[in-house]
Task: structure prediction
Amino acid sequence: MTENTRETDVAFIKALAELLRESDLNEIQVKRTYSEDDKMNVYISRGVPVQQAPAMPAPVASAPAAPVAPAAATAAPAAPAGDGDPASHPGAVTSPMVGTVYMQAEPGSPPFVKVGDTVAEGDTVLIVEAMKTMNQIPAPRAGTVKRILVEDGAPVEFGAPLMIIE
Result:
């Protein structure tokens, strides 16, 4: 059983490395629990954050909005204001996994939700594709979609805020 688990773990880690290579992500962290005494923690990084760390303060000091606006044009004007971190908002819907966000079921179809739509708890609000699996993300509560913080086709990391439902 241990040998088979090891082979499965190696295949899983290789799949995570491939996802990292194919996406625009810099790191992936996964925790797996097989049993109370058998757990696995995996952290994979490109090593890019070391280069990005010095680059981040310089643009913030010279032009704070410039680096944020192209990456998330929809969220940039509202997020940095007095709202703080959108992930800490009580109505935030966060990504349960690393992957790619899709706002509709298939290309050309209407989006699951748009700003101003009313949703019921459990309604699908978007999809996160991870390792070639489409994962429907349900609304954690009923309410109105106030903000959508990601763009269709954008890569997301675990815990990243996706939208605000109030």
User: Anything to note?
Assistant: Residues 48-82 have pLDDT under 50 and may be disordered.
